[in-house]
Amino acid sequence: MESLTLTPALRNLAKWCAVLSMIVIIYPWVFLIPHSGDPSGIMTYEALLTTHTHLGANTMLLFMVGFLFTFTTYGGAKKLWPTIGAISLLFMSLGTFLGVLVLIIVATIIFSVCILVMGVGILLKTP
Predict the structure, then answer these.
(1) Taking the model in full, what pTM does it have?
(2) Closest Cα partner for 60 from 113, 96, 20?
(3) Neighbours of 8 (CB within 10 A)
(4) Cα separation of 64 and 122, whole Å?
(5) Is the Cβ–Cβ distance between 55 and 74 less than 8 Å?
(6) In 10 A of CB 40, how many CB atoms?
(7) Which is the most buried residue in 46, 48, 75, 106, by most CB within 10 A?
(8) pLDDT one digit per residue (tens) for the chain, 127 residues
(9) Which of 2, 41, 21 is closest to 82 using CA atoms?
């Protein structure tokens, strides 16, 4: 089977995407939790707006970083981590639409770990 490699321009793009993705995952921890309001009550407008915005950005980020991660040499992990990230995005969207802050926070933690793993993997193993 033919080995997939990236051109030098795409390798550079992959490394920049990896670094920027690690910066972007900090966003909800800075804005979502301080504006979430009472944990037993409904989410505040600021928390909902932040979550909706970040959910859209996370979807694009997962597609970009997950796609670029598939060009690394990690074997089965190339399918596992993007899949876990996609499932956590589904839980984030479910939590957002139902207003369940605990579900959003747990899914965001899992998604953050996935993006960190893929970002570091891209930086270390981009051919």
Answers:
(1) 0.77
(2) 20
(3) 7
(4) 12
(5) no
(6) 6
(7) 48
(8) 345 678 888 888 889 888 888 887 776 666 666 655 555 556 666 666 766 777 777 888 888 899 889 888 888 899 999 999 999 999 988 988 887 878 888 898 898 899 989 999 999 988 6
(9) 21
